[in-house]
Amino acid sequence: MVKKSMVTGMDIVGSASCKALGTCTPCIKGKQSHEDVPKMTNMRATEPLGRLFSDVCGPMQTQSCQGFNYFMSWIDDYSCKATVDGIWHKSNVLEHLKAFVAAAELESGHKLKVLRSDSRGKYVSCEVRQFLLDKGIRHETTTADSLEFNGVSEHFNRTVMEMAHSMLEDSGLSKSFWFDAIEYATYIHNIIPTCSLTTNVMPHEAWTGNKPDVSLICTFGCHAFIHIPDSRCRKLDPKSLICTFIGYAKHRKAYHLMHHPTGHIIESQDVIFKETPDHEHLEHVQIEVDPESDMSGGEEIAAPVAPESADSEAEVTKLLDADKHPAIFHMVLPAAPQL
Fold first, then answer.
1. What is d(CA 311, CA 303) in angstroms, rounded to the nearest whole number?
2. Do 101 and 229 fall within a single domain?
3. Distance from C-alpha of 114 to C-alpha of 52, rounded to nearest angstrom
4. Same-domain check for residues 222 and 273
5. Whole-structure pTM over 0.90, yes or no?
6. Where is the chain membrane-spanning (predicted)?
7. Same domain, residue pair 86 and 224
8. pLDDT, tens digit, for every residue of 33-91?
């Protein structure tokens, strides 16, 4: 203000630099804010499982069909390959961590070197610390109230949760299918480009060395027509069963489907998909008719007769008998929720 002659009656004595003025304690107490955390780092892993990011998301307000209340996520720093697993309670973290580490090390041929997680909850329990110590895994944790240091996991959880919410809204499925949507969102994440990989590869290719096959991608919640073998239906019965696509089977080459009338979960490989929207997605308009007007012309209108179908619970249960053809038509009963 003095240099620009904006005020009068003021003189500058000595140096006016911040270093010369020193530290103002009252200013620090009144204005100190949280330090920014860098969004990029130069310390990237140079091989699979060089560093693994992990986090637990939940609890959800609705229990999944499998009985899960939380889900765990693992993101490999080298390939950006992500994996999710549902858990009933946070006390199951150690059990699922052991299973994932064993499977990932066997699949990749590398040993896990660094695990980064939050500095709270079951990740810092004595059992988890002892397991990591026995395996020779270095454990990196976030500082207090600084979840940004585990930003890879936090950002991934937010991304798949938003994708799952959109898929459930579009498909019209209930919120209890949130974990199926999370799994499918993770599958999509692994076969699309990411800015974290500078080369023209997907996370799936960076992890396995094979290019992903995108021909199997279908719209989550679309209609799926499952072929019913001739040995399971009568002469005039339908040749297919209408279900809803909710993902892919884990332990076989098949689709993961849900039959709406009975709620049964089915896994089948002989499926035809219908991804175009049906009329039930359109807005329904109710037309009120004046009761005094005679619209039928004096003739009695017969009520439509519902055709016979195999969609009743008894008939479907008979059709879903997987003892004879388990590889073609397999029913998976929902897991009982654990209290």
1. 21
2. no
3. 6
4. yes
5. no
6. none
7. no
8. 767 766 666 788 999 999 999 999 989 999 999 999 999 999 999 999 999 999 999 99
